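Hi R.,

Here's the chain you asked about this morning:
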Amino acid sequence: MEGSTECLDALICSGARRLAGYQRRLFMAEVATELCEGSARQAERRFGWGRETVLKGLHEARQGMRCLENFVARGRLRSEEKDPQLAADIRAIVEPHTYADPELKSSRRYTNLSAAEVRQALIDKGHCDKELPSERTMRDILNRMNYRLKRIQKGKPLKKTKETDAIFANVKEVREQARNEPETLEISMDTKAKVGLGDYARGGKNQDRRQR
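And the predicted structure, written out as tokens:
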């Protein structure tokens, strides 16, 4: 008889391990009610379950309501959450060196500062080197704060085409002819293609530097 009881207890424990959350607590509460006289302490001794978990399951079974789990609040706080001043200082350092997504498809921000550079800037700002996160952790913090490292490539000037000189020579000749004809009205119009200007090339996708 004792062997069959141990086998039954092992089977019950195996069934409990296959469940999770609310369903597991209800199963524990039913077993505690039927086999342990509704005692969480007896269920703890017999099946090795956590007493608090069994008590919560019994409470849910009696009240007919479910306790919501707050898994997000578990574990250690992130560095930027634990120290809001650190997050503020990181933004103050990174923001002047960031720009938005050129295609405006996301709220992601790009920066040309590396995690090591940001960490050194924090040290220069007065943060203690030993108390700051490591370079790898700083990289994760920047990613969580929606910053992505992307080196900005300097724009290359457009090369002059072979026909440029010939085009301007023709324009000059036509203008001289028009000026010598009193019945001809001269209208000046710039029909050259617009060229995106600026210090940096971003694929011509910026709203203020879009090539046409």
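Residues 2-17 form the longest helix (16 residues).

Let me know if you need anything else.
M.
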